[in-house]
Amino acid sequence: MSFPENLQRLRKANKLSQEKLAEIMNISRQAIAKWESAQSYPDINKLITLSNLFKISIDDLVKDNEKNLCELKGKVDINGGFILDKKVIDFMIRAKRATYAGKGADVISSRPNSHDLEHIEGNLKYYDTYLGGEKFAGEEALWKDNIPFWSMNYIGRVLDEGFLGDFLKEALALVPKEYPYRGPLEHENGEYKYICTVEGDFTWYSGHEEIYKNDVKVYECNFHGGLIK
């Protein structure tokens, strides 16, 4: 059962209208309607609220959502017939883990003082290029047969000297299949905590990630992207 189906089932089982659930969640009824029709998905804070409200784990609440997002509800026809499927998501995750998150070596810069990383498997290519360091901006993209079909832009900054680059790479290496853009929704290691929120799916989405050290925010990054043709 998918997340939209789970949400609708739980809401009705608890005799809640969309309006009443929206009131409890302090959001609009339209937001609930979009969740139940798979037009959008809640961020991690909303998922936690739903989990607590219905006394169900987040994993059980969204467990089939991974399959839906990876297959993009029957797949998407782009670029003259190319069908995006789970293989593309798997390639993208391997590429991310092999490049920045895996401390992969830079390739030749495409622009003055840019950092460029790439990963190629057969006719699929992943490219990540960014500028800056403590304050940075960049773009990731995917190609099939040298035709670009997906892109993501990001911009971020280090807020405190307590930031640890290796922890960011550790979090990004855990990129989940259901949200294959940055890192997991949450990850902790010692005094560091990574939090990522995402709205939308592979075709059109936006998100935000933060890192805290002992409850002090030391890093933040905004990102957005989707399919291109």
| Overall pLDDT confidence | 87
Overall body shape: globular
SSE-based structural type: alpha+beta
- N-to-C SSE string, H for helix and E for strand: HHHHHHEEHEEEEHEEEE
Number of extended strands: 10
Biggest sheet record: 8 strands, antiparallel
Topology of this protein?
Layout: H1 3-13, H2 18-25, H3 29-36, H4 44-54, H5 58-62, H6 65-71, E1 76-78, E2 82-84, H7 86-98, E3 115-121, E4 124-132, E5 135-144, E6 147-158, H8 165-172, E7 186-189, E8 192-201, E9 204-213, E10 216-227
Antiparallel strand pairs: 1-2, 3-4, 4-5, 5-6, 6-10, 7-8, 8-9, 9-10
Helix pairs in contact: 2-3
Would you write up a description of this structure?
With 229 residues, the chain is an alpha+beta fold. It has two domains: 3-63, lambda repressor-like DNA-binding domains (434 Repressor (Amino-terminal Domain), Orthogonal Bundle), CATH 1.10.260; 76-227, no CATH class. The protein has helices spanning 3-13, 18-25, 29-36, 44-54, 58-62, 65-71, 86-98, 165-172, and strands at residues 76-78, 82-84, 115-121, 124-132, 135-144, 147-158, 186-189, 192-201, 204-213, 216-227. It has an eight-stranded antiparallel β-sheet with strand order 3-4-5-6-10-9-8-7, with helices on one face. A two-stranded antiparallel ribbon has the order 1-2. It is globular. The two termini are 32 Å apart. The relative contact order is 0.12. Mean pLDDT is 87; it is low at 65-83.
Please tag this protein with its features.
eight-stranded antiparallel β-sheet, HTH cro/C1-type domain-containing protein, Lambda_DNA-bd_dom_sf, 35% strand, two-stranded antiparallel ribbon, 8 helices, single chain
